[in-house]
Write a structure and sequence with these properties.
Elements (H helix, E strand, L loop, with lengths): L7 H18 L3 E3 L2 E3 L2 H15 L3 H6 L1 E9 L2 E4 L1 H12 L2 E12 L2 E10 L5 E11 L2 E8 L3 H15 L2
Parallel strand pairs: 3-8
Antiparallel strand pairs: 1-2, 3-4, 5-6, 6-7, 7-8
Length: about 160
C-alpha cells in the first residue's frame, strides 16, 4: 500500500486516532497535516479579552449568555446582571491584563491571563475556563490565588476602623 492509498481499516484507525486526539487535546483539529483552532471560539475569546482590556462592560456582556454562571475562589454569580455588578467592582482593582495563551475547542476555551491589579494585589496569574452555548459564554470559571484579594479586604477594614 502506498502513502496515498488507505484501506477501510486504515481509514477507520486514522479517523479514530484523529477523534481521540481532538477529544483529548481539544485545542486543535488536524486537517491535512495543518493545525487550526476553532475560529469562532478563538474570535469570541479575542473579543471578550479585548473588551476586558478596555473595561468595556457592554462588549463584555455581549460575549455572555444571558444565563452565564461565574465562579471564582471568592465569588459565584448567576446571570448577566450579577456578572455585570461583579465586573464593575473588579474594574477598580484591575489596571490592565495580558492574555498569555488561549486554548480553544468548538464549545470551550481555557486561557492563561495575568491581571495587573492595584496594590497590595499586584500581578494575579489566572486560569480561566469558559464553556460556550449558543455561541456565547455560558460558564466562566477563574482559578487564582485569592490571598492577595483577602489582604486588600483586610487593609480596607483596618482603614475604616481607624477613622
Amino acid at each position: 500500500m502506498n502513502a496515498l492509498t488507505l484501506n477501510r481499516r486504515s481509514a477507520l484507525v486514522l479517523a479514530a486516532a484523529t477523534g481521540v486526539s481532538c477529544a483529548a487535546g481539544g485545542a486543535f483539529a488536524s486537517t491535512a497535516g495543518v493545525f487550526t483552532m476553532p475560529d469562532f471560539t478563538r474570535e469570541l475569546c479575542e473579543r471578550y479579552y479585548r473588551a476586558w482590556q478596555h473595561k468595556d462592560l457592554d462588549r463584555i456582556l455581549g460575549c455572555l449568555h444571558p444565563d452565564v454562571t461565574f465562579k471564582s475562589p471568592n465569588a459565584k454569580t448567576q446571570g448577566r446582571d450579577a456578572y455585570a455588578a461583579g465586573a464593575k467592582r473588579f474594574f477598580s482593582l484591575v489596571e490592565r491584563l495580558e492574555v498569555r495563551s488561549t486554548f480553544t475547542a468548538a464549545d470551550a476555551a481555557m486561557a492563561a491571563v495575568d491581571f495587573y491589579c492595584i496594590q497590595p494585589i499586584g500581578i494575579c496569574p489566572t486560569a480561566e475556563r469558559m464553556a460556550l452555548k449558543d455561541g456565547l459564554i455560558i460558564e466562566d470559571e477563574l482559578f487564582f490565588d485569592a490571598r492577595p484579594f483577602e489582604a486588600l479586604a483586610r487593609t480596607k477594614v483596618a482603614r475604616q476602623g481607624s477613622k
